[in-house]
Design goal:
461 residues; alpha/beta; Rossmann fold; six-stranded parallel sheet; 19 helices; 14 strands; binds nicotinamide-adenine-dinucleotide
Length: 461
């Protein structure tokens, strides 16, 4: 089949790579020249310096005969003569306070596509094409997509909703072996085309291939993200808070008590200073906005969002409240800038509000370190006298007054073992991921005070 992807970011590039790997001729169009250049490089490190997703580079190289990235719309127009499916994978951020989705990227892409589709096959439009919403979109957007096409004279097409459930950091693995593929369509013809697109998954063992209505598909995506986000809010704001508020409770022991009940399940029972990334927060706000627009109140959805915001504010506030720590003129080591491990994505990473908070507190210097995300973070916070980027974890922590762990990079875990020998200054430890929990008692005994999510204040002994 011939498949076009519009938008070559995390979702577009990873899905397109899997599409090429499934034997389809794949064209990816993106506005971003640099991204297109890096993704076309035919070199694993260059590809992954752009989108740090394990396996993406190898998959693109292996399938280079079948996948092309371009910024040239003339190429798109020519491809549309024979395209079977067009996947829209553009960003759908939120507008602001209301949570309403900002659909300007989506509409720009859809309108341009419509104008071009109407001219395909020299205007005859004899090639049937499905337009697939892979972006996370409002529940009823499919109707608008259809109107955009019709208003611009597009004929012989279908609109399908096929939300993406990939997990950043495991996007390739998740796209090659998804737990489910959800296809929302109104016509058998469209389902049939999508079955061909996904023939490697249809009927595959261990993959649920679900055919539903377009609105069920779009709603299912938002609700799935809400369920996950809500689990995190429960884990941080109820379980974690209980562990912080009473003595002699270890978060890890409570986790065992809870997760050994199969009705409760195990996903999401970890503690963190914040659930970041580009999806959970904005999708929850979009869902709440749509519920309110439909005359409902969306209170639980709003509260889940607020619990996550509170978590970070509360964590940062504990330095002053619990440890009587004044930030002014202090040197802060910030370990972890990516919103989570195994990605270089800094969108809605806790590191951003942390740096803003530290600046408001007039710290002397922030020393930041991350194994993959420093280049992306420098785009937001360029290096300066009071904002420096470390060469490794130890160099970043040396001489600091406080260490903040913000990302759950596995490589940070072992540092706790030699901290007492290597950091004679005994900085305050703020463990926003409980990465050093196995050493809290030893560190206290060695003269460190610790603020950790999911623990009461652990004062040096
Ligand atoms: N990142 C995730 O983990 C994830 C998971 C599931 C769903 N989603 C959803 O998928 C969508 C895309 O997310 P993403 O993370 O891939 O975003 P992204 O920002 O990584 O990529 C989007 C790409 O679209 C390009 N773009 C914007 N407007 C364009 C246009 N008019 N024409 C062509 N290209 C255009 C941008 O240059 C960018 O490269 C969003 O709706 C998001 O909510 C994301």
């Amino acid at each position: 089949m011939n498949i076009l992807y519009i938008g070559g970011g995390f979702v577009g590039a990873c899905s397109a790579a899997v599409s090429a790997d499934s034997g389809h001729q794949t064209l990816v169009y993106d506005l971003d020249e640099r991204k297109v250049q890096l993704l076309s490089a035919n070199d694993r490190d260059t590809v992954e310096s752009c989108l740090f997703e394990e396996g993406l580079g190898d998959l693109l190289i292996r399938n280079r005969e079948r996948i092309i990235f371009t910024t040239d719309y003339a190429r798109v127009a020519a491809f549309l003569d024979t395209a079977d499916a067009v996947f829209l994978c553009v960003p759908t951020p939120e507008i602001g306070a209301t949570g309403e989705s900002d659909l300007r990227y989506y509409f720009a892409a859809a309108e341009k596509l419509a104008e071009t589709l109407a001219k395909r096959n020299a205007g005859r439009q004899d090639k049937y094409v499905v337009i697939v919403n892979k972006s996370t979109v409002p529940i009823e957007l499919v109707d608008q997509t259809e109107s955009i096409m019709r208003e611009r004279g597009v004929e012989n097409f279908g609109v399908v909703s096929n939300p993406e459930f990939l997990v950043e950091g495991k996007a390739i693995e998740g796209s090659i072996r998804p737990d489910r593929v959800v296809v929302g369509a109104s016509r058998e013809k469209d389902f049939a085309i999508m079955r061909q697109v996904y023939r490697r998954f249809y009927d595959a063992t261990g993959i649920s291939y679900l055919e539903v209505t377009p609105t069920e598909a779009a709603a299912g995506k938002l609700l799935a993200n809400f369920c996950l986000f809500n689990r995190l809010a429960v884990s941080f704001d109820v379980v974690g808070r209980t562990c912080e508020s009473f003595s002699d409770i270890r978060y890890e022991q409570i986790r065992k008590i809870l997760t050994t009940d199969p009705r409760i399940g195990s996903w999401g029972f970890y503690n963190s200073l914040y659930a970041g990334g580009s999806c959970f927060g904005k999708d929850a706000r979009s869902l709440a906005h749509q519920l309110r627009t439909a005359g409902e109140n969306g209170v639980l959805v709003d509260e889940t969002y607020l619990a996550n915001q509170r978590q970070l504010e509360r964590f940062l506030g504990r330095a002053e409240k619990d440890a009587a720590f004044s930030w002014t003129d202090k040197t802060v080591a910030l370990l972890g800038l990516a919103f989570k491990q195994d990605t270089n994505d800094v969108r809605n990473s806790p590191a951003t509000p942390i740096v803003n908070f530290l600046r408001e507190q007039r710290v002397r210097q922030i020393r930041a370190y991350d194994p993959t995300a420093m280049e992306n973070f420098k785009g937001e916070f360029p290096p300066a006298e009071n904002m420096v980027y470390g060469t490794d974890e130890w160099q970043t922590m040396a001489g600091s007054d406080v260490i903040i762990i913000a990302t759950d990079w596995p490589q940070l875990r072992g540092l706790a073992d030699t901290l007492p020998e290597r950091l004679p200054g005994r900085p305050l430890i703020m463990d926003g991921r409980r990465l050093w929990h196995h050493r809290y008692a030893d560190l206290q005994a060695a003269g460190f005070s610790i603020i950790a999510v999911g623990s009461p204040f652990l004062r040096k002994v």
